[in-house]
Each structure stands twice: as C-alpha cells, then as structure tokens.
Amino acid sequence: MKKFILIPLLLFAFIIKVQAQDDAIQRFFSKYMDDDRFSRVYISPKMMQMAGGFLKSNAGTDKDSEDLGVLIQKVKGIRILSSDEVDGMAFYKEAMGTLTKNKYEDLMIVEDKGSSLKFMVREEGGLVKELMMISGEAGDFTLLSMLGSFTYEDLNLLAEKTDIPGMDLYGKGSKGPKGPKGVK
C-alpha cells in the first residue's frame, strides 16, 4: 500500500519541480515589470503566427521568404527585459541564480572584463523548446527568452535571416552541429 502512495507523491513532486523552473523565470520577469529602469518587450505567439503567415503569403516565388515564414511561426513567444540604467552584472548573477542549471545546456559563453554573455537552450524530445540569452555589464542588462519548437538549424537560420532581438549576438558564435559554441 505504501508503494502505491509513494509513486503519485514522487510524480507530483517532479511536476512541481518542472513548473517551479518555468515560474522562476516568469517571477524574474514579473519582479521587474513595473520597474521604470527596465524596458520590457513581449511578443505573443499570435503575433509570431501573423508575421510568419504574412511572410508566407507574400513570398510569391521567393522560397527563402516562404521558409522564413514557416520558421517564424515556430516561435511561440519572445520575452525581453533590458536596462541600461542598472548594475548589469548584479542582475546577471541574480538571473543566473534563478535557473536550474541542469535544465539548460550552455551554447555560448563570453566573459570579458566586467561583462558576461550566455546563451542556453532547454531541450525536450530532441527539439529546442527555449533559447535563453542573459547578458550583463557595468551599466547594461538583457534577458531574452524565446519559446518555440526548433532544431539547431532553425536557430541558425533565425540568426542569419531575421532581426529578432538578441539573434545577432547568437549568430556571431561559430556554428557547429548543435549551433554556436563559445569560449568559456
């Protein structure tokens, strides 16, 4: 009888842990939503779907535009929190402290005197479900979270062909089989 009670409790604990990670990132965004030092951007899944549909329908014979339209529709949302009025390294450390490290895989890390930039991914079933970028330096902090269902080739194409915020930095990494790999 104890085994039958223990299994649902363990399953429930696992579900709570997974939800807590997503909530930690959301709480970090929410914590600074009303702070006037920060710029906040949220691009909804519906907006991405509309943009992708527009590109696809107006592509005509342009195969690249049609492919990009399909790719953009894979983006399920983008959240950006940034400021050029804060101690970016302190916020970088705070944001990194909210993440469960084993849930994200590092793609690229760039550390220089007084600045840090990190790209990470969260994978499920062989697909990238979230691309996260966190950067901080003396007077600048940015956190970008892009949700969707991507391959690494999709992310490389997004970096090359779009002006999605943060993807220009992603594109500067050297692309291996899984995407950019940086200097640690």
Topology:
Layout: H1 2-31, E1 39-43, H2 45-57, H3 63-72, E2 75-83, H4 88-98, E3 105-112, E4 115-124, E5 127-137, E6 140-150, H5 152-161, H6 167-171, E7 174-176, E8 179-181
3D architecture notes:
The chain is of the alpha+beta class. It has one domain (24-174). Helices cover 43% and strands 33% of the residues. Helix 2 (45-57) runs antiparallel to helix 3 (63-72). The chain is globular and about 50 Å long. The termini are far apart. Residues 1-21 and 174-184 have low confidence and may be disordered. Pfam families: DUF4252 (PF14060). InterPro entries: DUF4252 (IPR025348). Residues 1-20 form the signal peptide.
Mean pLDDT: 76
Fraction of residues in H or I helices: 40-55%
Total beta strands: 8
- Number of domain modules: 1
SS field, number of helical segments:
6
End-to-end C-alpha gap? 50 Å
**Helical/strand content category:** alpha+beta
Elements, N to C (H/E): HEHHEHEEEEHHEE
Report strand %.
Answer: 25-35%
Chain oligomer state: single chain
Characterize the main sheet.
Answer: 6 strands, antiparallel
- Overall, the morphology is globular
- The unreliable regions are 1-21, 174-184
C-alpha Rg, in Å? 18 Å
Strand order of the largest sheet: 1-2-6-5-4-3
InterPro entries: DUF4252 (IPR025348)
Keywords: Signal
Signal peptide: 1-20
Pfam families: DUF4252
Concise structural overview:
The chain is built from 6 helices and 8 strands. With 184 residues, it is α+β, with helices and mostly antiparallel strands.
